[in-house]
Design a protein that fits this description.
Layout (H helix, E strand, L loop, with lengths): L2 E6 L8 H5 L2 E4 L4 H5 L1 H7 L3 H20 L4 H29 L3 E7 L3 H10 L27 H4 L22
Antiparallel strand pairs: 1-2, 1-3
Helix pairs in contact: 4-5
């Protein structure tokens, strides 16, 4: 089953809805983008140090192939093997770069798809709602509480719990 490294940006408070919204999932494993267009992939991901190291490696390989007078076929095979090895480690290098930039590592998520991994990662966490900029005034109700009484659940309104996303009446609702 595939797995992803999960990172939250350093500029957000830990375990908040904002941090969860801006979380980045980096797949652990082979990267086709890094294999096919390595320099573009590195620059797109803003991996400057890794790009410089990759560029130095390419220059070193060019010098070695010309020094040892390797034919084009051998040089191509060496270049293909280096690209293959890099693509196997590219996402781990991306995770390393994110840690260096201050991103918080929050865990490893697994799932057959990215959506399943996201669901598994967030279902066990309790996320705090961000502090309200304007506190409600007397006589007003929080969102989802426009219809008080027994009609609120019948109309699909949430219970006002900060841990509920969407219009479900309760977190982890009951099965019929």
């Amino acid at each position: 089953m595939p797995s992803w490294f999960v990172f939250e940006p350093a500029k957000t408070a830990p375990d908040t809805l904002e941090a969860a919204d801006k979380s980045v999932f980096v797949k652990d494993g082979f990267s086709f983008g890094a294999f096919l267009v390595t320099p573009v992939w590195l620059l797109w991901r803003r991996m400057w140090l890794v790009f410089l190291a990759w560029l130095g490696l390419q220059v070193a390989l060019a010098v070695l192939t010309s020094t040892f007078s390797l034919d084009q076929r051998a040089a191509g095979i060496v270049s293909l093997l280096v690209s293959l090895c890099f693509a196997l480690e590219a996402n781990a290098l991306r995770a390393w770069t994110m840690r260096r930039q201050g991103w918080r590592f929050t865990g490893i998520a697994t799932g057959h798809t990215l959506q399943e991994a996201e669901q598994r990662h967030f279902e066990g966490r309790s996320l705090a709602a961000p502090a309200a900029a304007n506190p409600p005034t007397a006589g007003t109700r929080p969102p989802g509480q426009e219809f008080p009484g027994p009609w609120s659940s019948a109309l699909g309104r949430n219970s006002g719990s900060p841990n509920v996303l969407g219009v479900f009446p309760e977190p982890h609702g009951t099965k019929p």
